[in-house]
Amino acid sequence: MKKSLQKKIKQHVKKLSKLKIYPQLLLHPQIPKPLHSVAPREIMGPAWWNKTRQAAYRKSLYHCEACGISKHTAHGPKWLEGHEVYEVDYLQGRATYIRCVALCHYCHNFIHKGRMQAMLEAGKLNHRKYAAVLAHGYRVLGQAGLHPGEEYNGPTAAWSDWRMLFQGKEYPPKYKSLKHQQRVYKVENRK
Q1: If you write DSSP's letter for every residue of 156-177 in order, what string do you get?
Q2: DSSP H/E element including 83
Q3: Domain for residue 84, yes or no?
Q4: Inside any domain, residue 10
Q5: Are 59 and 19 in contact (CB under 8 A)?
Q6: Rounded CA gap, 35 and 51, in Å?
Q7: Of 7, 46, 6, 27, whose CA–CA distance to 142 is shortest?
Q8: 0.85 cut: is pTM over it?
Q9: Three-class SS string for 87-120?
Q10: CB 3.0-4.6 Å disulfide test: which of 18, 66, 169, 175 passes with 180?
Q11: What gap in Å lies between CA 54 and CA 170, rounded to an integer?
């Protein structure tokens, strides 16, 4: 029994030594507003999303792929979350789905700073957590010698030209315009 346990421990340590951490995930571009609510998890449904994110968790050996934190040292009740990674072409108006990655709650929120800022302004997030998430993300980037860039503010495709590319198919925006999206979000937030 002891040899079997020792063998399992050695195998796990060997796997951990091959674990890859990608702090640059924290620099992932924001999904352009025309493609909000257009994501593989929305298209394929919860069963597909659960299977996909669970596979990402296993692949990362249950560690955050941006900071390396594990279940045993993570912050918050939701220690791992799935995040969809895209290649974004602002001029062509295309966001191509690449893969799902496992992120800790803080790294995931750091990537979605815009959403987090809106939650703070709406009183749905306290200042202490907001500051802790930002401090965590900037610390991870700093330790990797990376610097947060500015959000892309250059020319972009027209709202109606945007498409999310997934499994060889193109998916258009869910909403006709920014005003339409904002009206729907306001109604949903009142519920």
Answers
A1: ---GGG-EEEETTEEE--SSSS
A2: strand 81-89
A3: yes
A4: no
A5: no
A6: 23
A7: 27
A8: no
A9: EEECCCCEEEEEEEEEECHHHHHHHCHHHHHHHH
A10: 175
A11: 25
Token pair in block for residue 116: 């987090």
The region that residue 167 occupies, defined by phi over 0 for left and psi between -120 and 50 for alpha, beta otherwise, is left
Confirm whether 142 is domain-assigned.
yes
Distances (CA, A) of 99 to 19, 55, 129: 17, 11, 28
Q: Compute φ and ψ for 122, nearest 5 degrees.
A: -85, 0
Q: How far apart are the first and last CA of the chain?
A: 56
Q: What would the pLDDT profile of 37-59 be if each residue is shown by its tens digit?
A: 999 999 999 999 999 999 999 99
Give residue for tokens 């990537």: 111
Q: In what order do the strands lie in the sheet with 94-103?
A: 81-89, 94-103, 163-166, 169-171
Residue type, 48: W
Range of the domain at 115: 22-186
Could you give the C-alpha distances from 118 to 112, 126, 130, 146, in angstroms and in order?
10, 11, 11, 25
CB-based contact 137:107 (threshold 8 Å):
yes
Phi, psi torsion values for 159, nearest 5 degrees: -50, -50
What mean pLDDT value characterizes the chain? 87
Tokens linked to 12:
């796990």
84 by DSSP, 3-state: which?
strand
Residue 4 in domain: no
Structural domains counted in the chain: 1
DSSP state of 153: -
Show the tokens assigned to 106.
Answer: 């803080």
